[in-house]
Amino acid sequence: MAGLLQALVGASEKAADIARLCRREQPLFQLLVAEKTGPDRNRRFLQDFKTLADVLIQEVIKHDLGKKFPELQGHIHGEESNEFRSPEGETVTVRVCATPGDTAALLLAVLAPEREAAELLSDAVHRDVALADAALAGVELSIPPRDLAIWIDPIDSTNEYIRGREDVGPVDGVAPAGLCSALVLIGAYDRHTGCPVLGVINEPFFQRDPETRRYRHHGQHRGGWGPAGTHTESPHPLRWQGRYHWGVAYGDMRLSSLSPPGPSPVPRVVLSRAEAPAVRAALEPLCGGRLLFAAGAGYKLLCIILGLADIYVLSEGSTFTWDACAPHAILRALGGGIVALAGALQARRAGDTGTPPELVYNRPIDGADGTERWANSGGLVAYVDPQHLEAVLAAL
User: Which residues does the annotation say bind Mg(2+) (predicted)?
Assistant: First the structure.
């Protein structure tokens, strides 16, 4: 499987380029933010252009990975349907075509009459992304692609991506909202066991670049495998710097672009602002009365990975396999994981003190329909330090 990890990272970089493009280029930005609904809707604005950005990124990742690794074709899954209605009411299946011209023509069927927008997107879809990351290039793995499947979340925290708030200041290191919480998530799992084994998280909007106004990709380098490469080849001036993180947890192998966060005696807990009051009340004493809040499941999981928080608790079944697969693989690489909250609490109440079962990614929920088949229905707890996990389960 030489190059699969590199291919996942490269796909995330192209996805990040498209996500930035939609916010940078005026023909695309207008479609992204200026949509209207009902009688005031202007037909030249696609009603759900934000979904088109999601879908196009998803289809690009499917195309690029499936082309390089035919064994993965039919096993690359995403959140979005790739069917759209054209302005004339016809069904258009969004996909990557053989040439930029063909892809632009297909996108124009959805975006008509916005030809420039379609061409900008098509150029990004067909542009090669070169990685200059020596540490990543030196990673050698022996995981057969035929044993793997992929979950993609093309733009996690889509609402924050659309709102585009650029200057939301962090609270204790954690951004409570904003564009920085919009992430690209690509995770690979074992088809047979459902266990996550490879994960890539890309932060397209890590920070603004006011000096050069060019895209310079910076990897995280808190230790571990060292910095990711720089990539300065962009035909347009860009306002944002991005970065990516990856992890491998396969058999006894644990590799990551990051090193495990240092120990924290008092757990820092990050939650959704919609979290149940009873859960908040149970966790406040554990963390000295100070809870952290953030938008986006992927971003909250990233906070655990980066050591900005120690525990992410979600008591509702409002996340899905595509939200958790990539971060889960990285957490496993760092010695942590993601457990199903309801199952873990049930086991503790029954006196079982063993390690709670981790989430798996190959088992749809029986009797559920649509996307709900892939919900993490019992909530979850993400952690790096097992002692923090035990403290949270005891508190709940």
Answer: 79, 153, 155-156, 323
